[in-house]
Amino acid sequence: MPQSPQSPEWLIDTLGARRVLAFGAHPDDVDFGAAATLAALTERGVEVTLCLLTAGDAGGFEVGQDRAEMARRRQAEQEAAAAVLGIKEVILLDERDGWVEPTPDLIRSVVRVMRQVQPDVVMSPHPERAWDRLQKSHPDHLACGEAVVRASYPAVENPFAFPELVEQDGLAAFKVRHLMLMAAPEERINLRVDVTDHVGQKLEALRKHFSQHPDPVRMEEFVISRLRRIHAAGTAEGAPEGHAEDFHWVVVNGPETFAGF
Question: What are its GO biological-process terms (predicted)?
Answer without folding.
Answer: glycoside metabolic process
